[in-house]
Amino acid sequence: MDAPQPAPLAHLLNQAGELLRGLLENELIGVYVIQNGRFRYVNGRLAEIFGYAPGEVAGHLGPLDLTAAGHRDLARREIDRRVDGGTVSAHYAFDGLRKDGGLVHVEVFGVRTTFDGHPAIIGMLMDISDRRAAERAAEEQLRFIGRLVETIPNPVFYKDAEGRYLGCNQAFEQYIGIARDELVGRSVFDISPPDLAARYHAADQALFDKPGTQTYEASVAWPDGSRRDVVFYKATFDKADGSLGGLVGVILDITERKRTEELVWRQANHDLLTGLPNRRLFRDRLEHELRTAHRHGDTLALLFIDLDRFKEVNDAHGHDAGDQLLVEAGRRIRSCVRESDTVGRLGGDEFTVLLPGLDDPIHVERIAEEIIQALSGPIVLPNEPAYVSASIGIASYPQDAERAEDLMKCADQAMYAAKANGRNRFSYFTPALQQKALEQLHLGNDLRAALAAGQIGVHYQPIVELATGRVVKAEALARWHHPLRGAVSPAQFIPVAEEIGLIHALGDQVFRQAAAAALRWYRDAAASGRGPVKVSVNKSPRQFVTGSCHEDWLDHLTAIGLPAEAIVLEITESLLLDERPEIREKLMQMKERGIEVSLDDFGTGYSAMAYLKRFDIDTLKIDQSFVRDLETDESDRAIAEAIIAMAHKLGMRVVAEGIETRGQLDVLTRSGCDMGQGYLFARPMAEAAFDDFLTRDGSPGGRPA
Ligand code: C2E
Ligand code: MG
Ligand code: MG
User: Of 80, 349, 497, 604, which is the most buried if we count CB atoms within 10 A?
Assistant: First the structure.
């Protein structure tokens, strides 16, 4: 202290005693003096930090006594360096050892000095356990987050506010195929294909412009060039000073999910057999195209295609072959239209075609013709080629209808018209068709009500044995007297009943009435000595296909006590063409019980001899169309004669239908026809009238002589 000191310091030194006391008595910083490896002095705070009473440290303990075992070397080195004169001051932290054995983390600042003329160290010491703990907690948290990010199976990445990668997890390295070292510092443009990079960059910018979170679907390129569908979840993070630090992102791969969704959608919207859009998707497309056409003032054509006689092919060749045929038919229809047109399969053998924007009907017609042409060629099936044809209905927007449903109906009606006109052709929708369809609908509703009210009656028409003139059978014919329409012909309401599924109910009502009448005539015949009169009931093919009506009918006969021999079933040729084994079984079951089977309208259908044998038919009914011109038409006469001769050879009996004249009767009698039915004998009549007719018809050869 020889150099003159500025006044403040001199003053300070003057006050040194006071100042030092203040320092030593502070409650925060421990103060110590070490000499010869021992504490010469410690203040109260220092003793307190280590858990001692003030008097227990100075003169008793050395610095190493207050140092945790692991840090003693460090402490010794630091003390020696100063004591030996190497360094003047030292500043370090270490774990202190408390009197109770606990540890306390402390930081010391010590300087070399002299005390009582000998080297010493004076220093200050602070308890920094709290600060250390906070630091540790932060470190642990970082380690935890690091582990967490690595553990996440999804790719995770972080970028700075300039969009440069800061890092990523292992999943990201594997997913993108880039090592972390190569990634850090790069941008999306360095590691992704240009189109994707541009997309990511734009998204990043949008997020940085409006910090927060962001989710979007995009794709990611794999190292092999393939692309994956992903969802990006991103969020910005801030720096300590509150400025934008960058973003962190997670990638969720949704490729499989999308594939499954697509598959489910395909299956829900396509016909599994042909792969064509199904009814639902076709409807969607139709509605979509209708809206477009409406906006642009365009036209649109809808084609309904039904394969003619598909059922027969299906039955004859088996269902697998039928499936193949449908696939091929779908392919051929597709080949006739443009890529942008929609071909759908509504089910069964019904296909639809949507032709938007064909202004000229000629074009639509040409396509319909092409389809008919394409379908008419043989279709190769495993066993033998099959031949089908197509009936097509055409409806147009806006001419015929404006709504999808209505347009479908129009095309459907037009298709039925094409079928009715002889099949293998197309028909346009016309308002007359609509009218007819509407009438059918009303007729159907009325018929439903009539059946529910039991208003369907039965008339009986005699079938006469030609040799004797005796009435041997009565054909039961359904009769419906409508309060407003008057008498509705079965030729009109039977097809409607078949179409809307009422034929079972109708057939049952007729059968029960007929069976009741048959039972009466059966008993009367026995009582009066008149020969038996069988009742002949018509049964349409549909009645054989579903349900167990054959059993119900047989049960009913048993229940009322009528022998099955008193009943004749009139079936049509189309039933015999049905190859389903259960059809034949049902028929045979009825025959075995004694019911006679009669083939109605013979000559109008396929008339294949093989079927007659296979089904063991008892009686043939020659159709009225051959009887009508018997007297004048040589070929009709030849046909009738041939049928009679053939039937007799096969052991069958023959009924001629629709005999109206004496001349017809003579020809038939000469040809050996067994029985006749027609207006010449009697018109169909109510049951009571038939009773009278029978009574009057007692004598052999009595009528219509
Ligand atoms: P179908 O079985 O061939 O019946 C004979 C039809 O010819 C009857 O017509 C009958 O009235 C008519 N007919 C009889 N004799 C003559 C004649 O000399 N000249 C002319 N021009 N016609 C004659 P209907 O009663 O109008 O029945 C029409 C068709 O409706 C029947 O033809 C039959 O296929 C069907 N049908 C009638 N009732 C039933 C029924 O209960 N169930 C089923 N599934 N079909 C029935
Ligand atoms: Mg009949
Ligand atoms: Mg007939």
Answer: 497
The closest-lying atom of ligand 1 relative to the alpha carbon of residue 680 is: 18
The one-character DSSP state at 52 is -
Question: What confidence score (pLDDT) does residue 701 get?
Answer: 39
pLDDT of residue 3: 53
CA dist 462 and 472 (Å) reads 8
**Distance in angstroms (rounded) separating the CA atoms of residues 555 and 179:** 84
389 and 317 inside one domain: yes
Whether the CB-CB separation of 136 and 157 falls below 8 Å is answered with no
Q: What is the pLDDT of residue 693?
A: 93
Full residue range of the structural domain in which residue 121 is found: 10-132
Ligand 1 pocket member 507 (CB < 6 A):
yes
State how far the Cα of 290 lies from the Cα of 300, in Å rounded to an integer. Answer: 7
From the CB of 229, is ligand 1 less than 6 Å away?
no
pLDDT at position 7: 53
Q: Please identify, by atom number, the ligand 1 atom nearest to the C-alpha of residue 461.
A: 14
Residues of the chain with confidence (pLDDT) below 70: 1-7, 85, 606-607, 697-705
Which of the listed residues 447, 477, 542, 659 should we mutate to test ligand 1's pocket, taking the one with most ligand atoms within 8 A of CB? 477
Pick from 92, 98, 93, 95: which is nearest to 48 by CA?
98
The response to whether residue 538 sits with its C-beta less than 6 Å from ligand 1 reads yes
What is the pLDDT, as a whole number, of residue 697? 64
What is the DSSP code (8-state) at residue 383?
A: S
What is the structure's pLDDT at 702? 43
| Residue 378 and residue 288 in one domain | yes
- Do 692 and 613 have their domain in common? yes
Q: How far is CA 418 from CA 251, 308, 412, 425, in A?
A: 59, 10, 10, 6
Cβ atoms of 50 and 99 closer than 8 Å: yes
Note whether residue 2 is domain-resident.
no
Do 301 and 382 fall within a single domain?
A: yes
Q: Where are the alpha helices (DSSP H) in 529-673?
A: 542-545, 549-560, 573-577, 581-592, 609-614, 624-627, 634-649, 662-670
Per-residue pLDDT reduced to its tens digit, 593-616: 999 999 999 988 766 777 888 888
Query: What's the pLDDT at 19?
Result: 82
Same-domain check for residues 216 and 297: no
- pLDDT on residue 451: 95
Atom of ligand 1 nearest to the CA of 459: 25
660 lines ligand 1 (CB under 6 A): yes
CATH of the domain at 41: 3.30.450.20
CATH number at residue 638: 3.20.20.450
> Residue 477 Cα, ligand 1 centroid: separation in angstroms?
6
Q: Give the per-residue pLDDT at 331.
A: 96
